[in-house]
Each structure stands twice: as structure tokens, then as C-alpha cells.
Design brief:
Order of helices and strands: EEEHEEEEEEHHEEHEEEHEHEHEEHH
Structural class: alpha+beta
Distance between the termini: 34 Å
Helix content: 25-40%
Radius of gyration: 22 Å
Strand content: 25-35%
Strand order of the largest sheet: 9-8-7-6-5-4-1-2-18-17-3-16-15-10
Length: 369
């Protein structure tokens, strides 16, 4: 399953604060835009909805979403509207057939799959997401792909430390960040990967990391106090613990460890979200990291969707335009999107000119009629 599109709006008492209108995705995506243009907000709108589907409490704010997912030959259209700490509307259509809908009173109907023509009436709490409330593998098996998808989304904030200041305790119940879903849990994932997949796991990480332009000989777990571990690398015969690595070097190492862990560990389709990809890396290594991610996503297109964001010129120049989604926020807070899917003629016309990808962005050529 993969995301085809998302629409989102945050409403305030005096109108719409900001809005995303039909952002369409490919299997591989680079969301490019200036600072404060809406790149991170687009990812946040998606991850906020996922947390609600998986059981987070709803907020007092007024939000609405429309999410389209594709799973093999089925299209799922899910809509949700919340406000004043309650569900105002929720519906799901599968291949244009209504699967369920509910109103602000929690009342509605849902398809009962063991009897294809039968619709069940229901009433749920106005604060509960129906999608989670009605999860039942026997009565409603068509909901399972949505939950499998929501549980297989991993976000990495490349501009943050990605676990550089985080240790791993052998007692896994001590730390909240020792979860596969946390982008700070890199030491935990490395240890678990070694235990589960032996040296094949570590050797693949070293090979991928050195292909970026580094030259390490080994990756180690170092016990710094009772049952507390951190990462270290061996380079030119010297052992360097994670706190002594540059931010860029550790971010790249952490991302490769975590992506490799997902590759080895996951049998399901996965969606990888990376905010500010390449931040803190030099040109060569940022370019090589992007190539590594795109090549992996191209190879695993049947089971991986990759969505990255950047405002970095060198990153833009090294990602093919067919993967681009340019974001541009207007004065009313609406975030507009430009991609080959939505503006094919403009993208094709620019490719014939022969300028750099960054020229396409910096000149705002994508706005040409």
C-alpha cells in the first residue's frame, strides 16, 4: 500500500489557517521548497493523521483530512473532520463504494463483509475514531491494510541528532525511545539487528556507509556503564564513540543503520519519510546519500515508498525532476503543489531547455503557463 494523495486544512475561528489541497505522490518523492513554504507541514499533516488512526487522543483544534491510499487494485479514500475535541465526520470509500460513514453524533453504517449486501447500523463515542473502533479481521478485513500501512511508516528528521545523544539500555523497558518507530533508537536497532541477522547486517551497513565517501573498518557497541551502550566506529585503527563523530557523519550513519534495519526486519510494505535530507553533509556525501536512498527505493518499489524534503540546492540538482514535488505557499496560507503529475507540460518543456534542476526551482519556472 502507498499514499496517492493527501489534502488537509487547519481551520481557525476567522477562517482557514493553512491548507494542503491534493498533494499527489509517486513511489519516490522529493518535496522541495523555500523555508516556511510547507514542506515539513505536509509531512506533519500526514503523521498527525497516522497517530490518530493508531489511537492518539483527538485535539481541540479544527482539522480535516482526505487521504487516498492504493493497495494493489483497490483505492481507499478516507476522510476525517475533527473539532472541539470530537469527531465531526468520518467516512471510508473503497473503489468508490461506501464502506462506512458516521456523523457528529457518532451514528452511521458500515459494511458487514461476511454478508456482502448487509450494512450494519452503529453508534460510537463522539471522541473515538471509527477506523480503529471497528477493527475486526473477520467482520471488516478490508480495514487491515490501512492499519498495516499506518504501522509501517517511519519518519526521520535528518536535521535533528538522529540518536547521537541517546544511549541504549539492555533493559528495554527503561527508555521510551527504544522503539522501532523512534528515529533516535539507532543503538537499539543496531544491537537488535546484530542479534537477529548477525554479521550480514553489520557488513551491509559498513559497505553502504563507505559508499558515501567514508572509510570505516568496523561498527561497535561500547558499554559505557552498567548495561548502557552507545555506538562507536573504527577508522584508521582508531575507535571513535558516537559523541565524537561530526553531526553530519553520525546522521548519515544513523540513517543507514535504521534503513538497513527496516530492510532486514520488515516483511510488509514500508513508507519512509525523511525531513531535511542531506542537512549538514558536504556536497559529495549528500549526493551519495540521496543516490543510495533512491536506488534502494527504485529496487524495492513494490514494497517501499520514499518521501523526502529539502531546500538544499545541491540535493535538488541530484534528484531527477520526475520525483519532484515543489511546494509554494500563497498569502492565504494555502500550500500549492507542482509536479509532473499535476503540471506535466511545464516539466517536459523545462527538461528541453538544459538548465539545472535548481534553476527550475529558483526561477519559479514551474509557475509558467
Amino acid at each position: 500500500m502507498y499514499i496517492k494523495s493527501i489534502s488537509f486544512a487547519k481551520e481557525s475561528s476567522d477562517g482557514i489557517s493553512w491548507e494542503i489541497d491534493d498533494c499527489y505522490f509517486n513511489k519516490i518523492n522529493l518535496i522541495a521548497g523555500k523555508n516556511a513554504s510547507g514542506k515539513t507541514r505536509t509531512l506533519s499533516a500526514l503523521t498527525m493523521l497516522i497517530k490518530l488512526i493508531l489511537g492518539d487522543d483527538i485535539t481541540e483544534n479544527n482539522y480535516r483530512w482526505k487521504l487516498i491510499l492504493i493497495n494493489e487494485n483497490r483505492r481507499f479514500i478516507y476522510k476525517l473532520k475533527i473539532g472541539n475535541s470530537q469527531i465531526l465526520a468520518e467516512s471510508l470509500y473503497i473503489n468508490d463504494e461506501k464502506y462506512f460513514s458516521r456523523d457528529e453524533n457518532g451514528q452511521g453504517t458500515i459494511k458487514y463483509e461476511t454478508k456482502d449486501i448487509f450494512k450494519l447500523d452503529f453508534e460510537v463515542d463522539i471522541k473515538e475514531i471509527l477506523l480503529g473502533n471497528k477493527r475486526d479481521k473477520k467482520q471488516h478485513p478490508s480495514l487491515e491494510p490501512i492499519f498495516n500501512w499506518a504501522n509501517s511508516i517511519y519518519q526521520f528528521k535528518f536535521g535533528d541528532d538522529l540518536g547521537r545523544k541517546t544511549l541504549y539500555n539492555a533493559n528495554r523497558n527503561l527508555y521510551e525511545n527504544q522503539k522501532s518507530s523512534s528515529d533516535k533508537a539507532v543503538v537499539y536497532k543496531f544491537d537488535n539487528g546484530l542479534k537477529s541477522f548477525s554479521d550480514d547486517f553489520k557488513n551491509k551497513i559498513i559497505q553502504s556507509f563507505n559508499a558515501l565517501g567514508y572509510n570505516i573498518e568496523d561498527i561497535l557497541l561500547v558499554e559505557i556503564s552498567s548495561n548502557n551502550f552507545i555506538l562507536a566506529i573504527k577508522e584508521n585503527g582508531m575507535q571513535l564513540e558516537q559523541g565524537y563523530l561530526s553531526q553530519g557523519m553520525f546522521r548519515a550513519l544513523s540513517l543507514i543503520i535504521q534503513v538497513t534495519y527496516l530492510e532486514f526486519q520488515s516483511d510488509n510494505n514500508i513508507t519512509i519519510l525523511i525531513d531535511d535530507i542531506g542537512e549538514g553533509l558536504d556536497f559529495e556525501r549528500a549526493n551519495n546519500l540521496i543516490k543510495y536512498l533512491i536506488q534502494k527505493a527504485e529496487k524495492e518499489q513494490d514494497k517501499m515508498q520514499l518521501i523526502m524534503t529539502t531546500n538544499d540546492r545541491m540535493v535538488m540538482n541530484n534528484v531527477p525532476l520526475e520525483y519532484w514535488i515543489i511546494v509554494d505557499k500563497d498569502d492565504n496560507g494555502k500550500i500549492n503543489f507542482y509536479s509532473e503529475k499535476s503540471h506535466l507540460k511545464i516539466f517536459k518543456k523545462f527538461k528541453r531547455i538544459g538548465l539545472t534542476n535548481f534553476d527550475f526551482f529558483s526561477s519559479e519556472y514551474y509557475k509558467e503557463n
